[in-house]
Write a structure and sequence with these properties.
2 copies of one chain form a homodimer. Chain A is an alpha+beta fold. Helix content of chain A is 32%, strand content 24%. Chain A contains 9 helices and 11 strands. In chain A, the strands form 2 sheets. The first copy, chain A, has a 6-stranded mixed β-sheet with strand order 7-9-6-10-8-11, sandwiched between helices. In chain A, strands 2-5-3-4 form a 4-stranded mixed β-sheet. At the A-B interface, α1, β1, β2, α2 and β3 of A face α1, β1, β2, α2 and β3 of B. β1 of chain A pairs antiparallel with β2 of chain B, so a sheet runs across the interface.
Chain lengths: 319, 319
């Protein structure tokens, strides 16, 4: 069996493009650009909780980094560096090679240097920390939504949840929907370009990791406001409807903007080639309250908003 | 059972003293001081590999952060911020409270803000990323040792290994040695003040996590030099001798300095109240070669230098 150091050197040491000192010392050295703040986020993915033992390691490598990149997008930051700590039950080199291939595909796509990490023996666990740059004072936070703001969502949340339902045999999707939804689950596309473009436009933003309503709820709580949502969904629960409202793992962005910016957001949608849909309005009211009506104005009853590891579910939830 | 968010809020959200935005958004925001580079390191601790199930959670909280602080010390950096990702098999609040107590004791001791993290269900796993500041160009690296440099070590490595041997019944230590060695194992004291003082004095530095010879070996490899060590140990293996040469987990610093700095290092030892011992000299020669002689000049045979998770051992090894 090759030694740990061989494995790391072979698969996880690549050149860096904008790093003073990368992997191989007690710490990495980076020099954030003058005038920028550094945005930092960390996520831990555990086998059996966030992914299954037989998940394709190439896809898993992509997703492990992509979910962190998405946090940078939600902050309006440009992702620049990442570290990767891994616990593995054995030194399965084919698995490690495929994981590294997916991980670096995502790193290359978003211009990220891998600058450090740790490899150890243990139940499979992947922990990424990611570092992005944002002009000082320009980060998008959850706490800035104001009464009167419009609420927007990118893409169409729920595709990843439908892809999972198909793979688990809970529904049958026909092509091309099937491929689209499975790709949304396995190779999510963080909305970095959108996040950067929203600097100076959005008053608040978050990425949809736990579900559209759950994550919008975090904006409402942080901003101490309510929301009135008008969404073209059936009033009664269906898998499709619940995936759209409550499905996690899509990594679209939900954001709020003053109504005066409506035309700019519509234009941005064209520029980016990305659907941006206005789904409602922020209102003064109890923090976190959310009223959902359908296209005809009839109330939509939503049973739950998302997941919580230690209370009632098994999908990811974050700090 | 309290929800994940309740647990996090109750035990891991504390005030910050030098952070723009802490826990609670998609990312934290920090503003490194102008003229500084940021030093980044990450370590993952796994139950059964790095600590035992019945490890006191208060001690474990301290050590989880302290081993990362030690990486900052080895780089000559001032630790400033950290993130903590945890996987836990259950929401055992007494365990979490004790772990948080130890973790924040270390954070307070070294002036570190906890700025983010992740909590998830899974086999117990603790992953810290740490961020320190160092004046641009002043970081201590492993790669700067030159022929003629003196090799120094702080404190007395091996205490942690002896403490572990005592706890495992492989030796019996009398007081006060017993308490001293067990404290070295359970509450290691990272040498941050020493690391900061070595800026401009040391040509290379590393912390002793895998063992004195193993970690000195990393300096020799990175610097492409050899070493002649003269150490007052018995020539034949004893537990005490092997702990001193090969025992990990002490978090002392090994560093090299030009011989012209000898008096300054001796004075620094007095200032810091910390033993600093000159154990040999760097020589031109094959990268990594190490000759060890005892106080009488007789060669000391050393069987192995450290541990490797996937090859032959179970103690920590890092990138």
């Amino acid at each position: 069996m090759p030694s740990e150091f061989d494995l790391i050197a072979r698969h996880f040491t690549r050149g860096t493009s904008h790093t003073t000192l990368g992997v191989g010392d007690d710490g990495a050295l980076i020099a954030p650009a003058p005038g920028c703040e550094l945005v930092i986020s960390t996520d831990m993915l555990v086998e059996g909780t966030h992914f299954l033992r037989d998940t394709d390691p190439d896809d898993l490598g992509w997703k492990t980094l992509a979910v962190n990149v998405s946090d940078m997008a939600a902050m309006g930051a440009k992702p620049r560096w990442a570290t990767l700590a891994i616990a593995l039950p054995d030194a399965d080199e084919a698995w490690i090679a495929a994981f590294a291939r997916g991980f670096f595909a995502c790193a290359t796509e978003f211009g990220i240097d891998l600058i450090g990490g740790d490899t150890t023996r243990g139940p499979r666990n992947l922990c990424v920390s990611i570092f992005g740059e944002v002009a000082a004072g320009k980060a998008l936070r959850r706490s800035g939504a104001c009464a009167g703001d419009e609420i927007w969502v990118s893409g169409r949340p729920g595709r990843a949840a439908l892809g999972l339902a198909h793979l688990q045999g809970r529904t049958v999707l026909g092509e091309p929907r099937r491929s689209d939804c499975i790709a949304a689950l396995q190779r999510p596309q963080p909305r970095v370009a959108l996040g950067l473009a929203l600097q100076g436009l959005a008053t608040a933003a978050i990425d949809v990791s736990d579900g559209l309503l759950a994550d919008l709820g975090h904006i409402l709580e942080s901003s101490a406001v309510s929301a009135q949502l008008k969404i073209a969904v059936p009033p009664a629960p269906t898998l499709e409807r619940d995936a759209w409202l409550c499905g996690g793992d899509d990594y679209e962005l939900v954001f709020t903007t003053p109504p005066t910016k409506h035309a700019q957001i519509a234009a941005l949608s064209k520029t980016l080639g990305l659907d941006l849909t206005c789904i409602g309005r922020i209102e003064a009211g109890p923090a976190g309250r959310m009223d959902v009506i359908d296209a005809d104005g009839a109330p939509v009853i939503v049973p739950r908003r998302g997941y919580d590891h230690f209370a009632n579910g098994s999908a990811p939830a974050r700090t």
